Amino acid sequence: MRMKRTLMAGLAALALAAGAAHAQTTLRIGLAEDPDALDPTFARTFVGRIVFAGLCDKLFDIDKDLKIVPQLATGYEWSDGGKVLTIKLRPNVLFHDGEKMDAEAVRFSLDRHLNSPRSGRRAEISVIKTIEVVDPLTVKLTLSTAFAPLIAQFTDRAGMMVSPKAATAAGDQFAQKPVCAGPFKFVERVAQDRIVLEKFPQYWNAANVHFDRVIYRPISDSSVRLANLKAGALDMIERMLATDVPASKKDAKLVVVPVKELGYQGITFNLGNGEKAKAPIGADPRVREAFELAIDRNVINQVVYNGEYTPTVQAVPPSSPYHNKNLKVPGRDVAKAKALLAAAGQKNPVVNLTVPNSPDLRQVAEILQSMTKEAGFDLRINVMEFASSLNAAERGDFEAYILAWSGRPDPDGNLYVFITKNGPQNYGKYFNADVDKMMDEQRAVADMTQRQALLGKIMETTHKDLPILYLWHRTNFMAHTTKLTGFQPVPDAMIRLQGMKLAAN
Question: For the whole model, what pTM was predicted?
Answer without folding.
Answer: 0.80
